[in-house]
Fold these 2 entries.
Entry 1:
Amino acid sequence: MTLPVSIDSVGAACAYVMLTPDPYAKLMAARAVARAWRLGRLAHRFDTAMPDRPARPATPKLLPPGQMPRRGKIGSERARIAMLHALAHIEFVAIDLAFDLIGRFGGEFPRAFTDQWMQVGAEEAMHFALLDRRLRQMGSHYGALPAHDGLWQAAEETAGDALARLAIVPMVLEARALDITPATVERFESVGDSTTAKMLQRIMHDEIRHVSAGTTWFSWATNRLGVESANHYQMLVKRHFRGSVKPPFNDSARRQAGLTEDFYAALAT
Ligand SMILES: [Fe+2]
Ligand SMILES: [Fe+2]
């Protein structure tokens, strides 16, 4: 896929991904934008306002988190499909989160910030494609079940502050995925579905780097402000995150991502 010629800046390209509703078209747009950036075809210019909300396809139906139907008996195929569908939705939203981060805040950071988050955005698109393909192999697809709308709330809550966005999205929400994924992998392994288990492990490997990108740029920005990173992180999480930061933590994966205990131990509930 090639981008329309009018898309010649990073800002315009990020808005283009966000305003593409169809899942397959969005994933192709994400890959095309990351590629165009790599090839030097986009100016490092942030001249386009990001939409408040990304365009969404007609399905899945979005429900408030508390209204999601129950997943059925653990171990049943129905429950596994529901779990993969929930993960596919997270990856789908993660595409928009990456491009919104770049388009909204990239101008406050050096070019290397855009380099790194473009790569993250392309990886989220690949994760979504992997999960949707697996759902199709199991007789379902993304959009077949409802999904919950909690993730974008975190984006709205942090739309005005790059540091709050980095603290909440990669350093709380993506870090939590590192805590949860090993148990999910085990669950798929225990029913003999090693294909899904391996896929989730591969995704987790990338997610460690996404958390690491969050931690790296958070520290870069707090150093520049002359404030202490861990304290500032705790203040922002208390102010902007309504959920709880709860153990058990995957300390080793978090540490690999530069998210050491001095950041989150004091927040644990
Ligand atoms: Fe991902
Ligand atoms: Fe990610």
Entry 2:
Amino acid sequence: MDEFDVVIVGAGPVGLFLACELGLADCSVLVLEREPEPHSPWRAEPLGGRGLSAMSIQAFYRRGMLDALLTASGIDEVPDTDDPAPPRLAGHFAGMMLDAAAIDPTALPFRLPSPAPELMMTSLDTIESVLSERAAKLGVEIRYGAMVSAVTQHDESVSVQTDEQEYTARWVVGCDGGRSTVRRLAGFEFVGTEPQFTGYTMLATIADPDKLSHGFTLTSTGLYIRMQTDGHVAMMDFDGGAFDRSQQPTLEHLQAVLRRVSGTDVTLTEVQLASTFTDRAMQTTTYRQGRVLLAGDAAHIHSPLGGQGLNSGLGDAGNLGWKLAATVHGTAPDGLLDTYTGERRPIAAKVLDWSRAQVAVMRPDPHSQAIQGVIRDLIATGDGTTYVFGRISSLWIRYDLGSEHPLVGRSAPDFRLEDGTRLGDLMHDGRGVALDFSADRYLHDAAMQWENRIRYAAGAARNHLGLRAVLVRPDGVVAWVGGHDADREAFERVAEQWFGSPAIAP
Ligand SMILES: Cc1cc2nc3c(=O)[nH]c(=O)nc-3n(C[C@H](O)[C@H](O)[C@H](O)COP(=O)(O)OP(=O)(O)OC[C@H]3O[C@@H](n4cnc5c(N)ncnc54)[C@H](O)[C@@H]3O)c2cc1C
């Protein structure tokens, strides 16, 4: 029987990102994926097209994968500048498009220019290709055609059963999507709200496409989105989620729904690909049961509106990876692993509400349409646009780490030293980073006690936002900021809280 530190169930973007984080930290990792091979038309453009937001893009950037992701996504590199610029893409709320030029970049919290854009478009297939290539380099094994059907916990291990074989691991993470088998088998409670609509996404041949408007169209009977690729259409039918999603929607059904929600007599002549989704909004009450953890859609589901599911999942993986690795290596301080649920669950709860709010505004009834008008007016203001953009781009996320300093708990700004080195460049090896901007390197001796877990970097910064030093966790979250000599003890306390006692050899 094969034994691993961690078995990850599901080689979607979340499972693969987590696998890379654990591989980087020298854990032995096996990923089990039920599909027989990695690529499928559902995950490639156009149906597999996905928007990534700031935290996700930063996560790729901080591990040295940004160039590969941008290139594979057909996006030009972001200019290397120290001047704050407005974002290039802005997004939407319930189909109401934001004007990127109306965003006030100075109102976005602690933002510094960075090669990592705030939003970008890519596809599941592209993300998975970039991640699986890196995972292979890090020694992670991915087995395709391996469907997990049983998970059994023991005192010191967990066994995982596929049709072919049983595997043993110290930890198992279910990254197996919205209908997670691991979630069910391990007995996680999954709570939330039932759907208002059935959603469809399809690639079809349309006889008379000009009957449909481009982009988002809200009608008095529903909503449809005509995408840029010919024949790529998404639609939302407010049927209370009545469609039986275990069956494949037929051409006749799709045409009937499209006619209903568009209020036209548009005709489909062929459907190449079609799938369904709903706005069911649920999350598990905890992300850990003993030695089994969940991440991504396995832990939380909601409507794809606003494009946040993948981003939340990647955030889970980045948050969990270093904590689980420290637990495997025995350096984790008490309770570190449980901060995963403590930090990530409230974020998903807010994302669920964000998606519920959009559904409420889009419902084809007079009350919802009245709220829509109010929101449209608010979004037309600079403050409104900046607020909504902050939510869409994930720049709003701040964990409560017990500090009153408004930067602590947020994704670290991409500080840049005078020699041009950026914080992102210092994070490739997965350690935390202590950035010391002081002339006398006042943090040096304190930080070096954790040398194998925290990278110490010193130098004047081009913009230090008034800070003397910053401690950044491996997931890029600011754990501590320093301003005075007396702070050294505070630094040591916080370093021990996140990285464990310096006396423990990993
Ligand atoms: C139309 C649409 C548009 C979307 N747009 C966006 C967007 O723009 N931005 C965004 O952030 N999110 C978006 N989302 C949501 C996003 O696609 C998901 O949140 C994301 O794919 C979740 O990733 P995951 O790795 O958790 O799960 P998945 O991508 O579902 O991957 C799970 C993997 O586990 C495997 N698996 C399942 N069961 C087993 C088993 N028993 N054994 C082994 N393997 C198993 C599956 O085959 C799959 O490969 C959209 C969703 C839809 C439907």
